[in-house]
Structure formats: C-alpha cells, structure tokens
C-alpha cells in the first residue's frame, strides 16, 4: 500500500510553479499541496484534478490577490502572473481589456483630436465609469467566502460587452468622422471643377452631406446618453448607426455619379454655351441643334433623387445624349462655317483634327 501511494504521489505535476517569474514564495507554495489547495479551499482527488486546478483562472486570481497582500518583491520586480498558458484564462482576458480601457482613458485625458468632441468624450467617460463599477462588483464577488460562479460569469460577460462596445464604437466614430470629411472634400472638388452650383446632383449631394452630419451627431448622442449599465449593455452597434450608414450609402452613390458627370463635362469643357458671345456665327442647323440641347438639358434637370437611385441607367443615357448633341453642334460649327468667319486660332490642321474626332465620337 505504501509503494502504491508513493507511485501515485510521483504522478502529480508541479510544472505550473515554474511559470511564475520570480518564483512563488515558500509560504505560498506550502498552501498548494498535491491533495488539496489551502489557498482556494479545494480538495484535489487526483493528479489531473490538481493540474487543472493549479493552472486554472480561479487559483491564479487568488495567487495574485495573495501576492498583492504580501507585496512580495524579488530584486525590485513584482512577480508576474504567467501569460503564455496552454489555454486562455478569464483573468488574462480581463487584464487585457482593463489595460485597453485604461489606455483609452489616458488618450482622452490628452489634447483631443478633431473627432474627439465633447459628446464623444462623454460617451467614453460614462463607459469607463460603468466598466469600473463592474470591476468593483467582480472584486467583491471574488472576495466573498463562497464564490457565486453564476454571478461572476454575468459580471465578466458585462465587462467584455462594455469593452467591446467602447472599442468598436470608438473605431466607428473615428472612421465615420474621417469618412464625412473625405466625402465633403470630394463633393467640393467636383463642384469647383464642374462650376455649376445649381446642378441638381450637386444640390442633392450637398444636402446629403448635411444629412449625414446630422445622423452622425444623433448616433454619437445616443451612445453618450446617461443610462444604466443594463441599458448600455443592450446598445447595439447596428441599430445605433443604421440611419447614418444608409445616408452614407446614398451619398457614395451620388458621389460616384457626380464623378461621371464631371468626367462628361471635363471632356466637353470647350463646348460651353457660346450663344451669348458677341458676333458669333450660327446657322439654321446649329440653331436646331441648340434647341435640342436646351430641351435635353431641361429634361436632365428635372430628374429627382429617386430617379438617380432607381433609374440611373436612364439618367446616364440622357447625359450621354446631351454630350452627343454638343459634339454634333461642334462638328456643324466647324464644317459649315465659311473660312472668312472662322476665328484666327482655327487653322486648317486643327479643323481637320476636330472634324475627325467629332465624327469618330458620333459613330461610336
């Protein structure tokens, strides 16, 4: 019987002790026996049970608390809880989240960037306050003589959810702030080169930018509300940002179409209306083409936002038709105009080049 007990004791694995740096103090190790853990008040029936306990999160947490009370130091260095464990632990994950939340708090204590508004700061401060409250609850549960595992799991879940909501929403806030600025600059750039402030798409796009800014502020205000921890845990990212994302999607479509319009206009910038210029040459054919241009342009200006969303192929076809009418007008102006009426810069070589280019475009 004595030999069997000896063999059984030899199977107990003590390698968990080597994962601490510096080594655990002797008075703590004396509590961690093969058959029972006096630190955790746990009975260990076999080697596997002992190994699972000593490498588990509950034991590590109490080791950490014990060391804090002792304020144990070795060579001026606090003992480190092992990080490279064979499996993730709840305490490890919680420590990482706590460190990240502390980093966010430090970030907002420094001079703020343009996207870190008062409303965003309020959201961060309230989220951190709720996180600290749950940390305090968890510490009280762990300090109790009898652990309430279910309550600890609920609080741990709440901490993870608060952390995820804070980090995810901050990424969303920063990215959306940059997204707004990018699209506003794009629309402004297109407007400068299009040089048509009354163009319908430009009006709609500028209105959409303002709407996007409003929805952005509404989403941030929703996040920053002074609500209970339970209500903050129930906040869902998709619902908070739903309206903003829809407006952003619509603006992206408008921006892409404005790029196409600007591209059309850039290719035809030399074909702007010249009828108000003094002494211009014209003909019956050109006048008929100009009437068609005016009618086509009036048709395009009547399109609504719904048409732009649902009938863009029709709108795009009418834009190209307007472009073709302008090219045909240019070809008529070059071909029918008497040599004596031509401007001085329209030499024979340039005339031939423009005629070939216009005919090639018209045949496409």
Describe the structure.
With 364 residues, the protein is mainly alpha-helical. It is 69% helix and 2% strand. The protein has 15 helices and four strands. The strands form two sheets. The protein has a two-stranded antiparallel sheet with strand order 1-2. A two-stranded antiparallel sheet has the order 3-4. Strand 3 and strand 4 form a beta hairpin. Helix 6 runs antiparallel to helix 7, helix 7 packs parallel to helix 11 and helix 8 runs antiparallel to helix 11. The longest helix is centred in the middle third of the chain and has 46 residues. It is rod-shaped. The N and C termini lie far apart (100 Å). The N terminus is likely disordered.
What is the overall pLDDT average?
A: 80
Largest sheet: 2 strands, antiparallel
Strand proportion: under 5%
Q: Tell me the distance between the termini.
A: 100 Å
Q: Can you tell me the overall shape? A: rod-shaped
Count of DSSP-assigned helices? 15
Helix-strand string = HHEEHHEEHHHHHHHHHHH
Residue ranges: pLDDT <50 for 5 or more in a row?
1-8, 72-88, 266-271
DSSP strand tally:
4
Rg over CA atoms: 37 Å
What structural category characterises the helix and strand content? mainly alpha
Helical amount among residues, as a percent range? 55-70%
The main sheet orders its strands as 1-2
């Amino acid at each position: 019987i004595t030999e069997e007990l000896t063999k059984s004791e030899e199977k107990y694995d003590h390698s968990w002790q080597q994962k601490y740096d510096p080594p655990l103090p002797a008075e703590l190790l004396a509590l961690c026996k093969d058959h029972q853990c006096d630190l955790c008040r746990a009975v260990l029936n076999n080697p596997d049970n002992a190994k699972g306990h000593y490498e588990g999160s509950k034991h590590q947490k109490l080791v950490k608390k014990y060391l804090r009370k002792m304020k144990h130091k070795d060579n001026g260095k606090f003992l480190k809880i092992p990080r490279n464990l064979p499996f993730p632990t709840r305490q490890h994950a919680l420590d990482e989240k706590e460190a990240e939340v502390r980093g966010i708090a430090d970030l907002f204590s420094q001079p703020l960037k343009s996207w870190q508004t008062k409303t965003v700061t309020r959201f961060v401060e309230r989220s951190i306050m709720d996180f600290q409250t749950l940390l305090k609850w968890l510490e009280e549960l762990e300090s109790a003589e009898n652990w309430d595992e279910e309550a600890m799991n609920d609080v741990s879940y709440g901490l993870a959810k608060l952390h995820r909501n804070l980090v995810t929403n901050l990424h969303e806030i920063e990215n959306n702030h940059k997204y707004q600025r990018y699209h506003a600059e794009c629309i402004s750039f297109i407007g400068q080169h299009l040089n048509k402030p009354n163009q319908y798409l430009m009006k709609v796009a500028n209105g959409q930018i303002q709407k996007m800014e409003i929805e952005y502020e509404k989403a941030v205000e929703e996040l920053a509300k002074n609500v209970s921890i339970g209500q903050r845990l129930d906040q869902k990212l998709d619902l908070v940002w739903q309206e903003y994302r829809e407006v952003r999607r619509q603006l992206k479509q408008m921006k892409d179409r404005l790029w196409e319009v600007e591209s059309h206009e850039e290719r035809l910038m030399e074909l702007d209306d010249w009828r108000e210029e003094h002494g211009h040459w014209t003909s019956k054919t050109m006048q008929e083409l100009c009437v068609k241009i005016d009618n086509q342009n009036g048709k395009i200006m009547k399109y609504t936002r719904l048409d732009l969303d649902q009938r863009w192929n029709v709108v795009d076809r009418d834009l190209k038709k307007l472009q073709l009418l302008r090219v045909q007008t240019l070809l008529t102006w070059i071909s029918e105009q008497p040599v004596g009426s031509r401007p001085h810069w329209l030499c024979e070589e340039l005339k031939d080049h423009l005629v070939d280019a216009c005919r090639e475009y018209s045949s496409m």
